[in-house]
């Protein structure tokens, strides 16, 4: 029986991919102005970014434990193997909660095949992992082989971000108020990356163009042949910048297989409007 792939809204995959590959998405909770919303269900990214630009304080919360248990139970009852790939445990408590719910479901249905996999990724980096798993599932690949691929993919996955306004990172506790103020004054654009599932500042450059140029330099340093690799770019309501980066990548790496989508509330609530992120592998993990 075909493996069911589940992800949460932090994967930022385009709806067309989710629908075509029958990936079930569970929404994280986005809090704005004291109200709770379901990411990409009761609040769209553009609505969130509008609120943030107008000064709204935003936070996020993990997927509801009840939602996770009910969803996993649905497939366990039908003896459908299921893999729930979660947003990085370094950014959300969803993974830990999902493991608890999975254990309860496995006790109730001991013959079921249910796995929870920590992506250690975010946005479309995590999304690429989900995408490749769903492609394998669509081809009828077995439960164990998909989990093996996910482990290899996770080891090779690279995330590089830049943000447009340090104020949002200050609100999330990533930089000091002084650094945020001076960065805005001097047009400093931090370049960040992921280590062990958490987001860390890597270096600072002055100006958007230099930030993009540095992102490409880092990509050159960290990867080899990209001809058979799917890359991804996500953005916080800044498709123009995303397309600029895309053209720079095509010119430098001669690849056209690039997924672009807007960052949803799970990540956008912390990174803010204008964020641009690039995702690729250290070496190809071709599954499709």
TrEMBL record:
Keyword Phosphoprotein appears in the UniProt entry: no
Record Pfam families: DegV (PF02645)
Keywords: Lipid-binding
Superkingdom of this protein's organism: Bacteria
UniProt cross-references to InterPro entries, sorted A to Z: DegV, DegV_C, DegV_domain_contain
Keyword Secreted (UniProt): no
Function: May bind long-chain fatty acids, such as palmitate, and may play a role in lipid transport or fatty acid metabolism.
NCBIfam families xrefs: DegV (TIGR00762)
Name of the protein in question: DegV family protein
Species name: Fictibacillus iocasae
Classification lineage: Bacteria, Bacillati, Bacillota, Bacilli, Bacillales
